[in-house]
Amino acid sequence: MFSFEYLPDRYAVCRLAPDASLPQWALQNDSGKQQFVSLNWTPDELSVVCRESIVPDHVESETDWRCMRVAGKLDFSLVGILARITKCLADAHISVFAVSTFDTDYLLVKSSQWPQTLKTLSEAGCNVYPLEDG
Q: What residues make up the domain containing 107?
């Protein structure tokens, strides 16, 4: 089916006011390794997805997420990739927070559901392995 690369850190999904300035703390890269950060501004909020270890205590956040991405680049003409993946996980009662980028899709699942996620994806014929330079 698909191959996934998982990132080693725990992640947080944060909510800031829609008029907040770009949060510099979200851009910290103290590890020197490849990082995943997603910023989404809407009229209602600024959402930040980043490593939970860099989130200030005063920021509203949902923590303890594991993150994986579909390996390789996905062509925009491909249809139903995210739907197939999330259906497989939904059938196993695994909640997913998805973020799409230009190149691929990222899926975050709660750490408590991580072992079941790996098992479910493996049973569906997917390969899941650590991000090599992460």
A: 3-130
